[in-house]
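call fold(seq) -> tokens
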Amino acid sequence: MGVGPEQGLTVSVIIPVYNAVDHLAECLQSVVDQSIGFENLEIIAVDDGSTDGSGALLDTWAARHPGRVRVVHQENSGAPGGPRNRGIEMAGGEFLFFADPDDYLGTEALERMVAAARRNASDVVLGRIRGVGRKAPVTPFRKNVERGDIFSCKAVWSLTAHKLFRRSLVMEHGLRFAEGVRLAEEQVFVVPAYLHARSMSVVADYDCYHLVHRDGFAHLTQEAPDPTPFYANVRDVLSLVVEHVPPGSRRNGLLYRWLTLEILGRFNASFADLPEEARALHVKFAGQLLREYVPQELVAELPALSRLRCLLISGGLVEELTALATLVPRPKPAPEPERKSGLPDPAPRAATRPDGRIRAWAAALTGRPRPSGGTGR
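ret:
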């Protein structure tokens, strides 16, 4: 472990590391090469029980950059939330930035993001994320934003931790990541940071963070979540939203994101491949969230098949949801096409051969008569 943080640090870059030895050096070098000057930075790398030599590589970098690269080794926690939280406790920078060991930063990223934060007294800065072989958010990065908020920055369409956060905001509100959760664990940190921020900025004219697909490297976003902790985590986030934002169109605009991605997004084609017990839990917990947090006027704005999914989830109809999942291709959400309601429309393509009950419900929702007889082709 390296020596303690120096005074006057600008940014602490926190990296949770687990079995990333093939890509880790590229990530570390991208921080060392930052145009803001490595003398203004520190790297806090938390080795989460790696078994592939990542820990030894980190120790080499710490010896090469004493006081700038600080390394902690711990037993595997199973998820990046715990290592990130440990990094927060160790950090001495004015700002925090969270990177993953298989990604890398653009050379001017931290300089541009810190400049935006200081220019606008912003507590959170979103720097444009570029997908390398994988998808990356687009909606928040269509234009630069100077003094914005969660609404004007369209920030809920980018909830990963790869942002710049003012450390005083994090410490004042006790913000921490969920631990032991392997999907959406960032949201209980990122969303309250958005809601509490005095100001937010967006750096959209530079690729600040490169989100990289690596063959053979496990990406948590591609895994099916354990329903119990996943929905508990989503519940915590939705509670924060309804606590801080009054009822109405602005709250509905935020809730739409969780409705379409975290709730309805769990019932795509892969839902049918889950074990029966897991499918039942998804329906149970998603139904509870729908009933408690999603107003009917928001559901009414959805495309017909999305409304049908809501109907089936609320009714606890596991068998019907499974049948629908096998018939409708996975939605390809477009974050922000124009609609009269101002809400994006992630409607999937219509099923070509629905069973009788689903065909009847779909016809009722769309207002089209149900075909009689035939095979449904």
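The longest strand covers residues 200-212.
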